[in-house]
Amino acid sequence: MRPATIAAAVLACAAAVMVVVAFATGGEEQPAPSAPPPAAAPAEPAAAREGEAVWVANGCGSCHSFDPADAEGVFGPNLSGTLKGMPASYIRESIVNPSKVAAAGFSTGMMPEDYGSRIPPADLDALVEYLRAGVRD
């Protein structure tokens, strides 16, 4: 057989298959299966984004470890553990008056004492909520 004859036979077979498929499906074109849409990431609450921005702006991660921020500071306590179960009032006091109580294994006097005047109240609220949300079970 000549190559042209073989090519014509293959095309004829392909056309016959398409006719059979068209009759089997009622002549309607079948949509190609599609992959399911990717699951949307849960929206991060505005307060969490604001609190994280305060965390970053004040360099908290340079001294403290905190899992939600991927921070690995070594000078201050690991907040992922030391703040677990603590109320907002304790967290706020730890920021604005850090010499009042030191986490186990750490001494007072290492953390700056002026965060209470340096961080505006609304930003401090956002930071406290960010920290609390990050240590909840």
Any overview of this molecule?
With 137 residues, this protein is mostly helical. It has a domain at 46-135: Cytochrome Bc1 Complex, Chain D, domain 2 (Orthogonal Bundle), CATH 1.10.760.10. The chain is 48% helix and 3% strand. It has a two-stranded antiparallel sheet with strand order 1-2. The termini are far apart. The model is unreliable at 7-14 (pLDDT under 50).
Total count of strands: 2
CA-based gyration radius: 32 Å
Question: What global shape is seen?
Answer: globular
Structural class by helix and strand composition: mainly alpha
Cross-sheet strand order for the largest sheet: 1-2
Q: Which architecture of the domain at 46-135 would the CATH scheme give at its second level?
A: Orthogonal Bundle
Features:
137 residues, mainly alpha, Cytochrome Bc1 Complex, Chain D, domain 2, two-stranded antiparallel sheet
Can I get a quick summary?
This protein is an all-alpha fold and 137 residues long. It has six helices and two strands; from the N terminus they run ααββαααα. The protein has a domain at 46-135: Orthogonal Bundle (Cytochrome Bc1 Complex, Chain D, domain 2), CATH 1.10.760.10.
List the helices and strands and how they pair.
Blueprint: H1 3-24, H2 46-57, E1 65-66, E2 71-72, H3 79-82, H4 88-96, H5 115-118, H6 121-135
Antiparallel strand pairs: 1-2
